[in-house]
Amino acid sequence: MIVSLCMIAYNEADALSGLFKDISLQDYPHNKIEVVFVDSMSTDKTYEMMEKFKETGYGFRNISIVQCMKKNQASSWNAALMTARGDVIIRVDAHARIPKDFVSRNIMNLEDGENVVGGGRPNITSDISSWKLTLLAAEDSLFGSSVASYRRPSAQKEYLDSLFHAAYRREVIAKVGGFNENLGRTEDNEFHYRIRKAGYKMCCCPDIVSYQHARNNLKYMVHQKYSNGRWIGLTLSECPGCLSYFHFAPFLFVMALLFCSILAFLGLPLFLYVLLAIYGMFDIVNTVGCCTMKNVQPQFVLLPFIFPMLHIAYGIGTIVGLIQIPSWQKSIKNSHAKEKIEKVRRKVIQNTLKPEER
Question: What confidence score (pLDDT) does residue 215 get?
């Protein structure tokens, strides 16, 4: 199989060296891999690093660099899909690290009859320090981050609603088309929802693993949670079927906190006390869990405060997103996102390799 290994980036120069090394060391035959980079008009050295990688070549079948004027992820991924020509299209995030058998493991599982495969995607941190390990513990925790199964290595094959660093047979993209460019941060949810509706299954395989760099700055992590929550709120009006109840847990917590605070102000504090007690119990239990599973750091004592910061930021983001739905729907009314999805689908079909091109 010919493989298109795709990556998009915007101002990721600090993160790319490790990933580029990982790509160059893949044990799948390099003459069967084309590399597709999309630069979203970076202002740092991202584009120059891509050019240097292309000049070196590493024996790959082809290396393409595309510049995308739009800076949202869906647009950049669509640019990658319309450039890729492989039988298999693999997505890798710029903040990732992949083992040398990453591509070959994906291909092996696709050859077993699957259409979309991926594996566990645990978090890592690039610079080891007590504070960064504390933030990594918060991001790794089910309580602090997500219940998504793909975030942790799988013990056996299982079919999930979503995968992160996934490999898709070309026919899947040719059937469902590209990403919805109206969406930000939830474009994967909507894309995978259409894949499932088209009858395809997404297989999480225990022998496939890749790694994602966690945010190592609390301010950035809180902002990321707020943005994630905001897009959950907005996406509810665009594709409610691609969201799960778990996406709204922080929203419900914040709403309950506001409601109980109002009751406390009116002289009924019992409900607030009960809510804080229940939340505090989960907070402490999960902090203790981090201490038993991680290399314990002194800053772990801050986890009971970090967890609620992340939850409240996410919940407030969802509230803001829900409030912004009318104005957002008005702004995307003439966006032609559905036409772009179809345009990508047609381009993927058009770019399918002919026998003489293999």
Answer: 74
Predicted structure pTM score: 0.91
How many other CB atoms are found less than 10 A from the CB of residue 170? 22
Name 16's Cβ contacts closer than 8 Å, sequence gap at least 6.
9, 46, 49, 94
Q: Residue 254 belongs to what H/E stretch? A: helix 249-265
Q: Which of 304, 315, 200 is nearest to 252 (CA)?
A: 315
Residue of higher predicted confidence among 128 and 268? 268
Q: Dihedral angle at the C-alpha atoms of 312, 318, 324, 328, nearest 10 degrees?
A: 140
Contacts of 31 (CB under 8 A, 6+ apart): 59, 60, 61
**For tokens 């345009």, what's the residue?**
343
Written in H, E and C, the secondary structure of 168-193 is EEHHHHHHHCCCCCCCCCCHHHHHHH
Enumerate long-range contacts of 334-340, CB under 8 Å, 24 or more apart.
335/181, 335/182, 337/180, 337/181, 337/182, 338/180, 340/78, 340/178, 340/181
Tell me how far the alpha carbon of residue 324 is from its chain's centroid: 23
Distance CA 344, CA 174 (A): 8
The position carrying tokens 């003489």 is 356
Give the span between the Cα atoms of 42 and 14, in whole angstroms. 12
Residue in this structure with the two tokens 């999930």, named with its chain if needed: 160
Read off the pLDDT of residues 99-132 as tens digits, 9 standing for 90 and up. 999 999 999 999 999 999 999 888 887 767 888 8
| Cα atoms in the Cβ-side hemisphere of radius 13 Å centred on 3 | 27
Per-residue pLDDT tens over the stretch 216-225: 789 999 999 9
Beta carbons of 119 and 153 less than 8 angstroms apart: yes
Query: In this structure, what token pair is assigned to residue 32?
Result: 């069967």
Q: How far apart are CA 154 and CA 129, in angstroms?
A: 28
Percent of the chain with pLDDT over 70: 97
The sign of the torsion formed by the CA atoms of 4, 7, 13, 19 equals negative
